Amino acid sequence: MARPKRGYKNAAGVRVPGVTTIIGRFKDSGGLMWWAFGQGQAAERGEINSLYDKRDEAAEAGTLAHAYVEAHISGEKFPDLSKYPTEIAKQAMQGYDNYLKWQDSTNMVIVEQEMPMVSEKYQFGGTPDAIMVRGELALGDWKTSNAVFQDHIIQLAAYKALWEENNPDRPITGGFHLCRFSRDHGDFTHHFWSELDDAWEQFKLFRVAYDIDKKLKKRV
After folding, report:
1. Side-chain-facing half-sphere of 139: CA atoms under 13 Å
2. Which CATH class is domain 8-217?
3. What are the tens digits of pLDDT across the range 25-76?
4. Chain centroid, CA 162 distance in Å
5. Please, which residues have CB within 8 angstroms of residue 100's CB and are 6 or more apart in sequence?
6. Are β-strands 130-134 and 109-113 bridged in parallel, bridged antiparallel, or unpaired?
7. Does residue 10 register a pLDDT over 90?
8. For the chain, what are the domain ranges?
9. How far is CA 190 from CA 72, 85, 111, 176, in A?
């Protein structure tokens, strides 16, 4: 998602934290475990030399499939796959094609995308990937990861609150769609939730805890 270069600011011009920054402060270790597992596999394949080495993310099939979807939605130029290994490019295109099949089968139409917004009520910002419609407005998000994690649905719930505060006459009644591409192979999977009320309650607690955490850090 496209985060403003200077961060999010409220109506008074004061910077506020973003959704992912708040969630990241209290993030479950599941994602970290998957990252470490992936790094271990990369080391076995000789792609990196140590746990903290960084792989070329552009060479991951899932990242490329994700980039293709974003280019498709925005009408921008598609990434050049000719400079990547044939197998990686093939997997990326397969993931992209599977996404298109899903989009066609659901008749989903994206009406808004990557809209930076700020909640004056809760003092946080965020940029949802997409607002989609098929009879009702729904919220869409694209992820490149090897699993679906709790923080993904908390993020979706926070985006819904952001959207509805800024667009009170256009509520999200069509649920939440998470489109995920696996990093290593570009496999496409779709996940849907009709409501995420508990996830929103969790985020509100995170928002309060975020400010408390900042105060405590100044005392140690």
Report:
1. 26
2. alpha beta
3. 987 655 555 556 666 666 676 666 665 554 544 458 999 999 999 999 888 9
4. 15
5. 72
6. antiparallel
7. yes
8. 8-217
9. 18, 26, 19, 10
